[in-house]
Amino acid sequence: MAGWTTTTSAPSGPPDVRSAHRRRRAKPVRAVADDLSPEERAVRREAVGDLGSALRDLVDAAVLTEVPVAELEAVTSATRQLAWRRRAHGRGPQDIATVDDLATGERWYSPVYGPGNPIAPPMVATDSPDGRATGHVTLGKPHEGPPGLVHGGVVATLLDHVLARAVRAAGRGGMTATLTVTYLRPVRLGVPLLVTAKVADADGRRTTARARLVARDDPGSTLAEAEGLFVSLRPDVPADVLPPTGPGGGDRHDRT
């Protein structure tokens, strides 16, 4: 693909950054939430959330901008320097962030609801023990598919997340085995959305749940609906198949 380069060697950049990169590759550090006290985690979460919000503003500006090429080049250079600073102390792809909570499965970098993830909308979700879940979200230009409309893959992601949350709330757990999405009406950008889900059936390791997505000001008109089949891991599956993210191994975040 033109303009995109992939490399497996140590990146170029300031010497101190290259050295940090080599040290990290030679001896990866597994970041664990238990490394922080509750007070330290709260302070770091606030900083992570603030950075995530700022980066979402940057992403939004990047997909909307029509500034001159010279300004694009200047911002590109500045952004790359900021990226190097953040990579000086990082974690591996299988490591757990220190702001995450292993006991509850809170994932602060979730692409759906994570306050620290610049591609997350982020969705605000709640659930109840009777196997129901609700999500509130408004999607902007970074999640566009057809002009002015939300990308269908993003719609499916939102539905999948709320379905999984309903299943976990019912004490079932499991991973998505199948997801069937029916798109009924276009989902417009900038419109506050409501996603609801509930468990429909449970049998052994298999749980079925159903969800629907509507505009918050027009709850009677379904924009999309989905049915998901979730299957829990067999007891004989090794524990190292998934990183330890708490009961059920799933994403959970109760920030409101």
Q: What order do the helices and strands come in, and which of them pair?
A:
Elements: H1 15-26, H2 38-64, H3 69-87, E1 124-128, E2 132-137, H4 152-169, E3 175-183, E4 193-203, E5 206-215, E6 218-231
Antiparallel strand pairs: 1-2, 2-4, 3-6, 4-5, 5-6
Approximately how much helix is present in the residues?
25-40%
Overall spatial form: globular
Distance, first to last CA: 40 Å
Strand content: 15-25%
Count the beta strands.
6
Name the structural class: alpha+beta
CATH class of the domain at 124-249: Alpha Beta
Order of helices and strands: HHHEEHEEEE
Low-confidence sequence ranges: 1-29, 245-256
For this entry, what is the oligomeric state of its chains? single chain
| Radius of gyration, in angstroms, nearest whole number | 20 Å
Notes on the protein architecture:
With 256 residues, this protein is an alpha+beta fold. The protein has a domain at 124-249: Hotdog Thioesterase (Thiol Ester Dehydrase, Chain A), CATH 3.10.129.10. It has helices at residues 15-26, 38-64, 69-87, 152-169, and strands at residues 124-128, 132-137, 175-183, 193-203, 206-215, 218-231. A six-stranded antiparallel beta sheet has the order 1-2-4-5-6-3, with helices on one face. A hairpin with a 2-residue loop joins strand 5 and strand 6 (218-231). The chain is globular.
